[in-house]
Amino acid sequence: MLQPWRLKLREADEAYQGGRLEEAGRLLCESGVREFLPAKQLLAKVAGQLVERAQRRAAGGQSSAGWRDLEAARDWGADADAVSTLEQTFVERRLAEAEAYLAAGEPAAAVSRLDELARQGDAGRQTRLLRDAATRMLYAQRLCRRGEFAQAEENLAAAATLAPNVPALDDARKACRVKAAECRRLNERLHEAVTAENWTEALAAAEALLEFCPEHEPARDARRRAWAAVGMRCGDSLRQRIPSARFGAQAFTRLNGKRMAHPPEEKKQNLFAAAAPAGESVAVARFLLWVDGVGGYLACPSDQVMLGQPAPDGQVDVPILGDISRRHARVRRDGESYLIDPLRTVRVDGRTIESAATLADGNLIELGDNVRLRFRRPHPLSRTARLEFVSHHRTQPSADAVLLVAESCVLGPGENSHVVCRDWTRDVVLYRQGPVWHCRAAGAFEIDGVAATDRGPIGGRSRVAADDFSLSLETI
Question: CATH top-level class for 270-475?
Fold first, then answer.
């Protein structure tokens, strides 16, 4: 009968031969096994294989997994020089990744990489300096969003000093100075328009200013005052909108504060396309969601959407005005998950993908060289997702974000809403029952001028309004 340590040794050898290195290492490190010479010899082989696997993972961009292999290899007696050399390679690669994120204007991702490096035991001077630079750039971006450009420029200048080998930091400081000058001009224009109570001009100026500074509170306040003064109604005709204003000012001038009633035959228009032939799935029509005082959103209810340049044949669900292919990538909903299929060059969190990849909340999607989108799953109880533009690009027709709508879409003041409406006092939910869409909100509101309580059906050109919220839908 074999001794217990020999049985463990046999199990460990089988795990080693099967490529289950972690299991083999754990078995060999158990009490009463490791002190025997055959176990020590096999453990050395396991550690050597872990070093080789760490090298392969490093080459494949799996630095976190590779680092874990190195830590185990060191604990199990791998060659110290080999481990040290490879660790330095990992450190250099992680620093290069952080610098690349800074160069791409993604300081949050750079901070995340550097924090992970510090947790893994490398908190050297270069890591600390680069993290400080990334933190300052991140803070500068937040200041720019609020219109505080002087402080932002100071932080970017300090970041450029800390990381002189990242020219993008100095470029960002120069761009900040240019934006500051333009925002001063827009601020003056906004102040003059509000003082004169020229609300059409005030709205246009506020929208232009919010392009530069999305969290500029005076511009937000002016926009709210303009809508309140004129009684804006959105969603009548996309063709009459001017893209540079994003939404609102042209509709102001065109509607002149009058409530526009939709023709009777268009009310409760089904948001689904015409029924498909027998045996085929029903195609779901896209629609535009205009949320007064918040923005415009392109809603795509289909389980898969194509991303690419606008095409005359209309085969692109999310037409992006950017330097990408006409059919660049496909995002599809698979049960509770989302996948992205690369048809041309696609990177997810900086890593080029060659086949379908699962998307997680917060992933940065890069299409081609400069189109960047952020994938978000804000609500834990809904499969609906949101694509936010990180780069300056927009869709055609222009929208602030893309909603990948499943069974429901939540609009409200909470951070987990698919559309965050900070000034609202309640949640509004758009949800689908069979071929018909409904709107649900606690209390009273109107759908196309007809009173509703708690819920009611909506159509492809519906207007939903209450004292504390208003929105419009328009099928494409």
Answer: mainly beta
